[in-house]
Write a structure and sequence with these properties.
7-stranded antiparallel β-sheet; about 0% helix; globular; about 190 residues
């Protein structure tokens, strides 16, 4: 039986609330009992193995959690999910230092948000050390950067491929724009 994600409206404390439930193998798990204030839930993958839960914590930080279809929390306190590498069950996540329990362990200040790569168990394969991170499907490589002229390359198992690679920024050609049909405008960079 395929897992189902069900939402129903219910009156709780004189307010209409959406109650989210996972039904899998005739077992029902109410997601709202796992988090303070759930605002939305969605499947993260086509096979319905993982659920994205949007919620607010006790300090009213808007956060995301990833659950399995069995209701197991694999990682919470995520600021946002940047990318899903579905074929490998990996997630590029942006973590918030304000919400993450182990922020000091990873050296993330309370006002910082850093990217890392987690596996299907919620463990970091690449620690949240970077300001940006993306997956190149053709090369099967993770590119990570701190907005410096250098970026780092990692394999999907978290091994660094190169020390650093210099990024060469090219100046894009100037384009003219038409405003209200009568004027041409050339942006200054």
């Amino acid at each position: 039986m395929n897992p189902k994600l069900i939402s129903k409206s219910r009156i709780v404390d004189n307010e209409e609330t959406t109650i989210w439930t996972i039904v899998n193998n005739n077992v029902s798990i109410e997601i709202n009992e796992l988090f303070d204030s759930v605002s939305d839930c969605n499947w993260l993958d086509k096979k319905h193995n993982f659920i994205e839960v949007n919620y607010s914590d006790w300090t009213e930080n808007d956060l995301v959690a990833i659950l399995t279809s069995d209701g197991e929390i694999i990682r919470d306190a995520i600021y946002c999910i940047e990318e899903i590498i579905e074929e490998h069950y990996l997630f590029i996540v942006r973590m918030s230092g304000a919400a993450m329990e182990e922020a000091s362990y990873y050296g993330i200040a309370s006002d910082e948000k850093k990217c890392g790569l987690i596996d299907q168990c919620g463990d970091f394969i690449i620690d949240p050390d970077f300001l940006s991170m993306e997956y190149d499907k053709e090369e099967n490589i993770i590119y990570a950067s701190n907005y410096t002229p250098y970026e780092f390359m990692y394999s999907l198992d978290g091994k660094q491929i190169t020390e650093e690679k210099e990024i060469i920024f090219e100046q894009p050609p100037l384009k003219s724009y038409e405003l209200f049909g009568d004027f041409n405008f050339i942006p200054l960079n």
